[in-house]
Design brief:
It is built from 13 helices and nine strands. By secondary structure, the protein is an alpha+beta fold. It folds into two domains: about 160 residues, Alpha-Beta Complex (Spore Coat Polysaccharide Biosynthesis Protein SpsA, Chain A); about 110 residues, no CATH class. A five-stranded mixed β-sheet has the order 1-7-3-8-6, with helices on both faces.
């Protein structure tokens, strides 16, 4: 399984290595910033002396929309505002000081209170480099890991309602590249197994997660469901393949180092087993009650 080796092979890691400015911001190659994005975020970071400025919403335009209008025209119409967070978007600036109350931050994270995408981040470079934050070899969820690092380590996170990012949804995007089932299956399972190992490494650095295994499990559960969402991208192709053809793909992917992933599956299966036992007992009790009437 590909793992994060600490080498700057990933373009974003290379960019951080050669950066010299005070702040870091990440832009995918087919997306755009609004004209005043970096000015807005820098001003906010300076004003609040924040390690991280976090934006929860962004503009999203499709290829089809861009065929019929320019980006400027779409922005003027305030068209197609998108968001990933499940909760209501924050109406004003919100500051989270010191990660001592990590429980509050983790609760927000697992309940959809933070956007996990990299474009939500605007960080002080010295905060990023001093904590040795890197993007792991995770084709689909590397953004989530970097965000989680920041969530656990930042002394001050400033969340703002500013819309500074323009996401362009394209059919040729790597996130939509699911034509080759075996290739996508490998990419998806690499994300899943590597992700469990990488999230486990981060949480192992904090006493909090050792003392609160329920929060550790909640993070694993969030990640598992997040990657399962990506599985929907190839579900149509997957349904056309006989199960016998899938088994060799699964066996090819797993290795003995995936202890965190195996532990999660073990716990999940046992929780489901207990739930089934409880429902069976309730059902038996109901039947007995009805028979006695």
């Amino acid at each position: 399984m590909p793992k994060n080796t600490g080498t700057p092979d990933i373009p974003r890691n290379v960019g951080v290595k050669f950066s010299r400015g005070k702040y870091l911001s990440f832009l995918d190659n087919d997306d755009l910033f609004t004209k005043t994005a970096l000015e807005e975020l820098t001003t906010l970071a300076e004003e609040h002396q924040a390690d991280v400025v976090h934006t929860d919403k962004f503009f999203s335009f499709s290829d089809e929309q861009l065929k019929h209008a320019t980006t400027e025209e779409l922005l003027t119409r305030n068209h197609n505002l998108a968001r990933y967070v499940k909760q209501e978007l924050i109406p004003a600036q919100t500051v989270t000081d010191e990660p001592h109350n990590l429980a509050e931050r983790i609760n927000l994270w697992v309940n959809g209170g933070f956007s996990w995408t990299t474009w939500a981040l605007f960080c002080r470079r010295d905060f990023w480099t001093s904590n040795q934050i890197e993007f792991a070899v995770m084709p689909l969820s590397g953004d989530a890991l970097a965000n989680f690092f920041c969530l656990c380590l930042a002394k001050k996170i400033l969340r703002v309602p500013n819309i500074t990012y323009i996401y362009r949804s394209r059919a040729a995007s790597i996130s939509h590249d699911n034509a080759d089932l075996e290739k996508y299956f490998h990419k998806w399972l690499t994300d899943l197994t590597s992700g469990f190992n990488e999230f486990n490494k981060i949480m192992s650095r904090f006493k909090f997660f050792g003392e609160h295994p329920d929060y550790r499990y909640a993070v694993f559960d969030w990640f598992f469901n997040r990657v399962l969402h990506d599985a929907n991208l190839f579900s149509a192709a997957y349904a056309k393949v006989h199960p016998a053809a899938i088994n060799p793909l699964v066996e090819k992917e797993f290795c003995g180092e995936d202890a965190a992933f195996a532990a999660y599956l073990f716990n999940t299966v046992n929780i489901q087993r207990l739930q089934i036992m409880r429902l069976t007992q309730e059902n038996d009790a109901l039947k007995k009650s009805l028979q006695q009437r």
